[in-house]
Amino acid sequence: xxRVIAVLVLLFAAAAMYxxxxxxxxxxxxxxxxxxxxxxxxxxxxxxxxAYPLQSSPGVETIExxxxxIDVVQSVLKMINGAIHVRPDIYMDAELPFVPDExxxxxxxxxTQISNVLRGYTVESVLHNKIIADIGETGSQFxxxxxxxxxxxxxxxxxxxxxCKYWSADAEKRMRAKMSAVQPSASR
Length: 188
What we know:
The chain is α/β, with parallel strands linked by helices. The chain has five helices and six strands; from the N terminus they run H-E-E-H-E-H-E-H-E-E-H. Helix content is 45%, strand content 18%. A six-stranded mixed sheet has the order 2-5-1-6-3-4, with helices on both faces.
């Protein structure tokens, strides 16, 4: 009887182990899709390499995707672009252009791939330590969704700050100017 139970336990464990990678792929996409209506301007979605640190700020949620960096970036951008309320402001590590293939095989190919994926978007470069610190601080007040990928090239993370799709920075400036013309203290 003990042998039968042991064999059954091993069979269930093996089945769960083989099913996990397929479920992880579908699970992260479902979690991002479920989060999308809740996310708004000032929230972040990070698509990061496999060595990205697990942050401890209360608003930072980390999900292991077990997927390629490029696939995750494409999927997330597709979800954001399909949303009615948010648009992406994209940031990348300023160090990436200086990572040589000799130290990180595939860095040049990745730079080409990510450049193609992000064509049409404005991408701002920021030093890695600064953006990590900013994310940690933001996580104390706003939700940050971190999607870990199987990427093994350093400084390859894509940081997406969500902004309001239906209200531009120019519209905000115009409104604030009108407010300050009526009430000088309203522009503060």
